[in-house]
Design goal:
The complex is a heterodimer of chains A (about 180) and B (about 180). Chain A is an all-alpha fold and about 180 residues long. Chain A is built from 7 helices and no strands. In chain A, about 35% of the residues are buried. Chain B has about 180 residues and is mainly α. Helix content of chain B is about 70%, strand content about 0%. Classes of the chains: A mainly alpha (about 180), B mainly alpha (about 180). Chains A and B meet through helix 1, helix 2, helix 3, helix 4 and helix 5 of A and helix 1, helix 2, helix 4, helix 5 and helix 8 of B.
Chain lengths: ~180, ~180
């Protein structure tokens, strides 16, 4: 059967024009707001981990971006385990996502980054308190994951601090862009 | 930078904003969610760089997956966590143009299957490529695209009539008393 080209009318043109214009506007807004160069750097910073899977390389000299992904992986384990408190693990995932994005877009100061990390630590401590109250319900595997998360948060704090201390670009441009 | 890094860097620069827009169009993500999903997808792409057959299509699939993975996080009400409200951006970090907002508002009205097909289509993917990415038949993709466009055209026509009607109504002298 012969395929007929789809017939077009004036409204097709209007629709295409609206969609293309909307895309162009959005690209322009994002280009203004998002520091693409630092976004690229954030990704390329994970260079040593090119063939790695999150959670399988605990001793790799990891980049900040990898460390956040690794922490995210811990919290996802906790989330999926069903032994967490919703109001603890979910916000931690949110804070880590925000921290990753804001670092990628280079739009926060060291104090703000540290506040994110402290907030996650405080949430974890609260979770430990609740777990202690019901110790026999929580499998040891989850304690290990949560302990690892605490250690990884410490590593992340040191790496992020180094990022601000070592790079002139970072220390010169610490004002939020958004 | 080695060749891989240069190619990836170029790909990132070309694709980032378009990819954010794609996630917004395809599943209704906010700018913030779209940005995060795009960054996550591009991070994964770099880990597999050189082995991806069609990186543009691959990052779109992964970005959508990243967006859905973040759904439990999005459900958190920040009202219960006042200590971080000053850190967590609750407002839109990028100001959308009227045109973008209008287009995305229209896309919101489409069923999910039609919406995602149209998002791929507006990003220049052929029906065959979309079918391959979504694991659907070519005919299903064609139908979804056709129905999506038909619905949107009809909505545009309705909006246009309403604007015309409002304009002419405002020119009619109002009866007083």
């Amino acid at each position: 059967m012969t395929q007929h080209p789809e017939s077009r009318d004036e409204w097709d043109d209007r629709l295409d024009s609206l969609l293309a214009g909307a895309d162009a506007d959005l690209r322009a807004s994002l280009t203004d707001a998002f520091d693409v160069a630092s976004g690229v750097r954030a990704v390329l910073g994970s260079d040593p981990l090119r063939s790695a899977t999150v959670g399988t390389l605990p001793e790799m000299p990891a980049s900040v971006s990898y460390q956040i992904l690794r922490l995210t992986s811990h919290f996802r384990h906790l989330l999926e385990s069903g032994y967490h408190e919703d109001n603890i693990v979910k916000p931690c995932l949110l804070y880590l996502a925000q921290l990753r994005q804001k670092l990628g877009a280079r739009c926060l100061t060291w104090d703000q980054a540290n506040q994110y990390i402290q907030t996650v630590e405080a949430r974890l401590e609260k979770m430990f308190e609740r777990w202690r109250e019901q110790a026999h319900y929580v499998p040891s595997e989850l304690w290990e994951i949560a302990d690892q998360a605490v250690m990884d948060l410490g590593t992340l704090r040191r790496s992020v601090k180094r990022l601000f201390e070592d790079s002139d670009e970072w220390s010169e441009n610490m004002a939020p862009r958004w | 930078m080695d060749d891989d890094q240069l190619h990836f860097s170029e790909f990132y620069r070309t694709e980032f904003a378009t990819l954010v827009g794609f996630v917004m169009k395809a599943v209704g993500a906010t700018v913030y969610e779209g940005t995060d999903a795009a960054q996550a997808a591009l991070t994964e792409a770099w880990a597999k760089w050189g082995t991806l057959f069609n990186p543009r299509a691959w990052v779109r699939t992964v970005a959508i997956r990243a967006y859905y993975r973040s759904v439990p996080v999005r459900e958190v009400s920040l009202d219960h966590h006042p200590e971080v409200l000053d850190l967590v951006a609750t407002d839109c970090p990028v100001e959308l143009s009227e045109r973008t907002a209008a287009a995305h508002a229209l896309l919101e009205l489409l069923p999910p299957a039609q919406r995602i097909v149209l998002a791929y289509s507006t990003d220049g993917f052929s029906d065959a490529e979309i079918a391959a990415e979504l694991g659907k038949s070519l005919e299903a993709v064609r139908q979804n695209r056709h129905r999506a466009r038909k619905t949107l055209k009809s909505l545009l026509q309705t909006q246009s009539r309403e604007v015309t009607h409002d304009d002419s109504a405002s020119r009619v002298p109002r009866r007083v008393g």
